[in-house]
Design brief:
The complex is a heterodimer of chains A (124) and B (789).
Chain A (H helix, E strand, L loop, with lengths): L2 H6 L14 H4 L13 H8 L36 E2 L6 E2 L2 H8 L3 H10 L8
Chain B lengths: L53 E5 L3 E6 L7 E4 L1 E3 L2 E2 L8 E2 L10 E2 L6 E2 L1 E2 L2 E2 L2 H15 L10 E5 L5 H15 L3 E6 H11 L7 E6 L4 E7 L2 E2 L5 E3 L3 H15 L9 H11 L6 H10 L2 H6 L1 E4 L13 H49 L5 H8 L4 H18 L5 H17 L1 H4 L7 H5 L8 H67 L1 H31 L7 H8 L2 H15 L16 H6 L5 H23 L30 E4 L2 H4 L2 H4 L11 H11 L5 H8 L2 E3 L9 H12 L8 E3 L6 H11 L3 H4 L1 E2 H14 L7
Parallel strand pairs in B: 1-11, 11-12, 13-19, 19-20
Antiparallel strand pairs in B: 1-2, 2-3, 4-6, 4-8, 5-7, 9-10, 12-21, 13-14, 14-15, 14-16, 17-18
Helix pairs in contact in B: 2-27, 3-25, 4-5, 8-10, 14-15, 15-16, 15-19, 22-24
The chains are: A mainly alpha (124), B alpha+beta (789).
Chain lengths: 124, 789
């Protein structure tokens, strides 16, 4: 290790005195390190919130509902108000100059702009 | 336009130097840096008794740890872990938190991005959590065996029991903590501010955090989780949105737009507009206010070194050097030439001498004499003599006007060389065939061998003669062809010269009119070329979802291309009635020529046009100082390379933040803008109040009169006004609305927790290891902290 790295104490030491079980004992090197940790979705599924009274607040309960207001139509490229949208690419645009830009975008950029709005076509 | 640059020195310590342009005199406001990492190892761990709790604020963005009762956490760092490999030793190490990127160059960070233990705001990756806790306790100064202090740790609202139990297990088993308490950070912040009188006992706490936003109503000092509400949008999404927008707008600066840098930009420049569309309209119209609000970030850019016009001395010096070099080259050439001349002269003398000797020698001994010298006959010697004299003359550098003579000579010699051509076939004799250069055979030998030879010759005569004749015809025609081509070129050159002369005359007599004509011609040509280009390239690449592309193309093809398509389709799908007689006639095969793309006259036309255009534009440039040749319309795919066609200017390296400044935080109020189908901040209050178990108008009024904001995201300027306006829209008319902000939205959660843990009754709220194992998971699920002690 280089001197300055040691001095900055960048690296986490492998042995820590206050721990009862060290990391290398807990997660031995040979075994697959990608320990299968449950993702949030799986955790929530395992919680079985259905078995409990619905009044009780739990993680899923308190999630917000969809919005009541009509969704704001913003131009994808410039951010101005966009009353129009391009049927070919599904992008929203504000005026004719922006439309020229929209029509001249390569396909990759179109998809990225749409992905910002979560409207991209995802082929699985 | 107000332009200022911001520079980032280290992620751990953020300073930025703000340079203002003089356009608008604004007071230099010293911004308070909200987040600073502190990772110095603490030394006073052992001074604290076992009863002092350790307080941890486990946030999705930052991890704060310290002692109960203090006002500042001791250690703060970003809640991420990296596991890069060391470049030289190859071992994989863990690095917790954000560090000086200069030190990270010793590690290979490509495979390991920073990883967080959180998913939304729930801890799910406990291996990473363990690394983080290791690091935190280590920096707090822990030594000895085990952490012997009670621990108060924060979690998200309604944390799933799986996560809670794993966390408790980690703390109990691995660190040996005696007792643990879980609390919600927003509640701690609320209580802290309540004690300071910012908010009342009943109120609404709004916490836009890093990855989520919560709204929790407080009744009687306790949070009512049933009425709480969570939207999965936070500071992370704002930064991500800004990063993507900038990357799409400036694709060639993508390397510069790292996540940390964009976060800094967001913290420094983003604000919330009171009304989005009116603000956007300002920018759309390009008003002065919009100009003032635009910020531009100047990337470091070194202008290419301008070549100064060389000074007089430089020029003189360079000229002298060139002169000397030229002199040296000339001397060398001279020396070489003189040596060659000497050689040739020697050879000439030798050959002359040989010839003279030959004359003296008897006719009989000629062959033997000649074989000694290496030449076969007198003619050969004479011809080589002639060659040598010619090259000598050339070497001596006689003027080129003699080339005509030489050419004539070559012509003459050509006639000599091709004597056979002029002789008709049947008159070719054996002698000429055998020795085209030696018509005279030795008379003596003739008598001896003629009988045998003539027979052979007569048999092979014709074919050889013909072959020879054909060869000579071929040679002659090729040389003649070459000469003709040369002549044509000369003529063309003369023609062009003449045309230029005419042009010049026309220009001189009427410069204006001439310029006008030129310009008109230029415009027409360029339009034609553009149109052709557009036709050619329009159908293929401009749009991704090219649903109507196939249909539209047919309209735009010109007649020739349409004809070609028709031929192709008929050829492909032709079933053929009866016998197929294609190919019986030669003309049928011409069809393929029509079909082939190479015969597109469009291309030829285009080339001619382009050449013409180039000529006209160069002419215009000469005569008209104001003329600027129109840049070729670079096809839009290489729009990113367009700036490189002209020299890069300072402007190319500026990143302009105009609309993005208030577009990005807008997603907190409208998550629909990024595709998250949930309510925004202002509506969340309505939802939360609606969800309250008891419908009490009085209570609602009390709630709205103390709306408390905390969390990192509430530091955006303009947040309070916007929130107030938004809530006013959904509450009944005349309801009291009062939006207050926490004293320190970032650290108040920790401070509240610290105050709480310092109270005596805190120990009643914790649970020990025994509790955890005895009472089981169900109890843990129902475990809630009581915040009013």
């Amino acid at each position: 290790m280089e001197a300055e790295v040691l001095e900055a104490e960048l690296v986490l030491p492998t042995y820590l005195s206050f721990k009862r079980v060290q990391m290398y004992e807990k997660y031995p090197k040979g075994q697959s390190r990608g320990r299968h940790w449950k993702h949030l979705k799986q955790i929530l599924q395992a919680e079985n919130y259905r078995n409990y009274p619905p009044d009780e607040p739990n993680y899923v309960n308190i999630e917000s509902p969809p919005s009541m207001h009509p969704c704001k139509r913003l131009c994808d490229m410039t951010g101005y108000e966009a009353p129009y949208y391009d049927p070919r690419t599904n992008l929203r645009y504000a005026n004719a100059e922006v439309f020229k830009l929209v029509r001249s975008l390569p396909s990759e950029y179109v998809q990225r702009y749409l992905a910002l709005r979560n409207a991209a076509v995802v082929l699985k | 336009m107000v332009c200022f640059c911001s520079q980032l020195n280290r992620p751990g310590q953020r300073h930025w130097s703000i340079i203002f342009s003089t356009a608008s005199r604004e007071r230099l406001k010293k911004k308070k840096m909200p987040f600073i990492s502190k990772i110095k190892r603490q030394t006073d761990y052992n001074l604290f008794p076992s009863s002092t709790p350790i307080v941890i604020d486990n946030g999705a963005s930052y991890f704060r740890i310290g002692w109960a009762g203090e006002t500042e956490p001791r250690v703060i760092f970003r809640n991420i872990v990296q596991r890069p490999r060391h470049k030289t030793t190859g071992e994989t190490v863990s690095i917790v938190g954000d560090h000086d990127p200069a030190l990270l160059k010793y590690f290979d960070c490509t495979r390991s991005g920073p990883r967080s233990a959180f998913d939304n705001d729930v801890v799910y990756q406990f291996e990473i959590m363990e690394y983080i806790l290791d690091f935190a306790f280590d920096r707090l100064g822990a030594n000895g065996s085990g952490i012997d202090h009670p621990v108060l740790i924060t979690e998200c609202v309604c944390n799933p029991v799986h996560s809670r139990s794993k966390m408790a297990e980690l703390l109990f088993e691995t660190y040996g903590v005696p007792s643990v308490a879980f609390g919600v950070d927003t509640a701690f912040s609320y209580k802290y501010n309540q004690q300071h009188g910012i908010c009342g006992q009943d109120g609404l706490a709004i916490c836009p955090g890093f990855s989520t936003t919560h709204v929790i109503p407080f009744v009687g000092g306790e949070p009512v989780y049933r009425g709480s509400c969570r939207t999965n949008i936070g500071g992370y999404h704002v930064t991500d949105y800004l990063k993507q927008l900038l990357s799409l707008k400036y694709p060639h600066h993508m390397a510069r737009l790292t996540w940390e840098k964009v976060e800094d930009l967001k913290m420094e420049h983003c604000y919330i507009a009171p009304d989005y569309f009116s603000e956007a309209r300002l920018f759309q119209k390009g008003t002065k206010e919009a100009e003032d609000k635009t910020r531009c970030w100047q990337l470091p850019w070194v202008p290419p070194p301008t070549e100064e016009p060389p000074s007089e001395e430089e020029i003189a010096r360079k000229a002298a050097i060139k002169e000397r070099q030229g002199q040296r080259l000339r001397e060398m050439a001279e020396a070489k030439r003189s040596s060659r001349i000497n050689e040739l002269e020697n050879e000439l003398h030798g050959l002359g001498f040989l010839l003279r000797q030959l004359e003296q020698v008897e006719a009989n001994d000629i062959p033997s004499f000649l074989s000694a010298t290496g030449y076969v006959s007198k003619q050969e010697i004479e011809s080589s003599l002639a060659k040598v004299t010619q090259s000598l003359r050339k070497a001596k550098g006689e003027p080129k006007s003699e080339q005509a003579e030489v050419e004539e000579k070559t012509e003459a010699s050509m006639n000599e060389k091709y004597p056979l051509i002029h002789i008709p076939d049947n008159m070719l004799t054996s002698e000429q065939v055998l020795n085209p250069k030696e018509p005279k055979l030795k008379k003596k030998k003739k008598k001896c061998i003629i009988i045998a030879i003539v027979i052979k010759l007569l048999l092979a005569m014709v074919s050889i003669q013909l072959k020879e004749k054909r060869r000579q015809i071929f040679l002659k025609t090729t040389t003649e062809g070459r000469q003709r081509a040369k002549q044509k070129r000369v003529e063309e050159g003369l023609e062009r010269e003449r045309k230029n002369q005419e042009d010049e005359e026309r220009r001189l007599e009427n410069p204006e009119l001439y310029a006008e004509q030129m310009r008109a011609k230029y415009k027409e040509l360029s339009e034609r070329i553009d149109q052709r280009k557009r036709l050619k390239t329009n159908g293929s690449h401009t749009n991704g979802n090219n649903t109507s592309g196939g249909v539209g193309r047919g309209e735009r093809l010109n007649a020739a291309q349409r004809e070609r398509m028709r031929l192709l389709t008929t050829a492909a799908f032709d079933r053929g009635k009866g016998e197929d007689t294609f190919g019986a006639k030669d003309e049928d095969w011409q069809l393929y020529k029509l079909m082939s793309r190479d015969n597109d006259d469009d291309d030829e036309g285009a080339e001619a046009d382009e050449a013409e255009l180039a000529r006209v534009s160069s002419r215009l440039q000469e005569i008209d100082p104001k003329f600027v040749p129109k840049q070729e319309l670079v096809p839009p795919q290489s729009a990113a390379e367009a700036p490189r066609l002209r020299p890069l200017t300072k402007e190319d390296f500026q990143i302009v933040l105009g609309v993005e400044r208030f577009r990005c935080p807008e997603i907190l109020y409208h998550p629909n803008l990024v595709g998250i189908d949930q309510v925004g901040l202002d509506e969340m209050t309505g939802v939360s109040i609606r969800r309250l178990p008891s419908k009490d108008e009085d209570l609602e009024q009390r709630l709205t009169s103390s709306i408390f904001m905390t969390g990192g995201c509430c530091l955006f300027p303009g947040m309070s006004q916007r929130l107030e306006a938004g809530i006013r829209m959904i509450r009944p008319c005349g309801a009291p609305i009062n939006v207050v902000r926490a004293l320190d939205p970032v650290l108040d959660a920790w401070r509240g927790a610290s105050l709480y843990a310092a109270k005596l009754q805190f120990t009643e709220q914790t649970f020990t290891r025994m509790d955890y194992y005895e009472k089981g998971e169900d109890w843990l699920r129902r475990y809630q902290l009581r915040y009013t002690l």
